[in-house]
Amino acid sequence: MSYQSIQHVLKTAQPGPEVTIKGWVRTKRESKNAVFIAINDGSTINTIQAVAETGQLPEETLKLITTGACLAITGQLVESQGAGQAIEVKIGSVHIYGPADPDKYPLQPKRHSLEFLREIAHLRPRTNTFSAILRVRHTLAFAVHKYFNDNGFFYLNTPIITASDAEGAGEMFRVTTLDATRPPLTEDGKVDYSQDFFGRETNLTVSGQLEGELGAMALGKIYTFGPTFRAENSNTTRHLAEFWMIEPEMAFFELEDNMNLAEDFVKTVIRYALQHCADDLAFLDNRLKEEEKLKKKEEQSDMSLLEKLQFVISNEFQRLTYTEAVEILVNSKPAKKGQFQYEVSWGVDLQSEHERYLVEKHFKKPVILTNYPRDIKAFYMKQDEESDASPGRTVRAMDVLFPGIGEIIGGSQREDDYEKLTTRMKEVGIETDALWWYLDTRRFGSAPHAGFGLGFERLVLFVTGMGNIRDVIPFPRAPKTAEF
Ligand code: ATP
Ligand code: MG
Ligand code: MG
Ligand code: MG
């Protein structure tokens, strides 16, 4: 039996034809003369109302039509008498695929807490909030591919199981076929990885960048968009152990070009979501407004979700160096009153509270910070000769900072000078032998190049206005969460 999606039926909104719709019951309401059933099939945030006259449906059928039950309804589209909807379905026949025992079904037509919904992540896509988030997530993913395709980038898939630690931060999940309780040992008592499947130590990737650079040095402009893993203690509202990262890498790009691209990219994909997810974003905007009302006055945000999205797409991002930012932060009110949780000083990485202060209070614009101290950044960033700090102390890094989140993008121009790169690797204790393939791009036909990484879930978090990154991925993986 064919059927029409509710999104399609509501969009056409013409009374007259007979339709079949299939979906899950959201609510059932009985009045003296009629039964009203609200049905949603996930294609849209909206429900369609189906109406039967009292006594029309057999008692056994009516009993099974409860919140969460799955059914098909065939009937004529008629003009609706009710407010808020143009059309409804005058029920001809009902087929029940699967009932949902109302005494046991965990989702009821009321507002459930996000904490509770996190415990039933397998069912939460059936709620308005989560179906809206998942549709926005889909649209953003599509917009990402579209943006790069439209701008001459090639989609490159980099390894998920890899021998390299791109960030050198030691936050990797080990992948091994060896028996963890009794691994084979070498003569000097170390684990003998030569007996492992790949013949050496391997991990889940923390970034596709190093391999992405190989692509850029052949195809010009590439991007990766794949699963990324970090075994960090990610018990924050902005970190996941498994997330999706978007990493463009461009030959012949310097830091300035990289910043221009990052700014244009995020603005374009957010604009795309505003155009193509208007209903879902209006719903999420409204949801957030209701949530804000429940908060104490001083904790309320001064911007609504839609205002925040406008704030990003309509402002030119403020660009300044890390050194300038530290100066501002040290002289800021919260620093003087000791209101920051962490103290700011040159050479220490900024925390999200500092990043947010710059964006929300000081500049009132999204911010791009550049030229970070090299000791707090990864080995592959290009050393800065002409920065405001003494030469060599900073690198050509950039972080893009957003309201409510702080860092959303981290990127840099890459060190393309073989001597400088290998010297730096030795200084920070990275084996040059293990990365011989990476160094080959500097030995043969090296070129200036740059790129950045955007955590896809940070983008979805921002666009949906949610407060916790675990609520913008279908199956969140964080410490102590492994239902799936
Ligand atoms: P943070 O300072 O927030 O921990 P980072 O500087 O460690 O981020 P990078 O190594 O620069 O992160 O990674 C690039 C981007 O990947 C970040 O700007 C962020 O958007 C995203 N990202 C990093 N770690 C995570 C994580 N654990 N979960 C989700 N997204 C992440
Ligand atoms: Mg981190
Ligand atoms: Mg950071
Ligand atoms: Mg970073």
TrEMBL record:
Q: In this entry, which stretches build a coiled coil?
A: 281-309
CDD domains reported for this sequence = AsxRS_core (cd00776), EcAsnRS_like_N (cd04318)
- What reactions does this protein catalyze? tRNA(Asn) + L-asparagine + ATP = L-asparaginyl-tRNA(Asn) + AMP + diphosphate + H(+)
- EC main class here is ligase
Q: Which residues form the signal peptide?
A: none
Q: How does it assemble?
A: Homodimer.
Q: What is this protein called?
A: Asparagine--tRNA ligase
Q: Which gene encodes it?
A: asnS
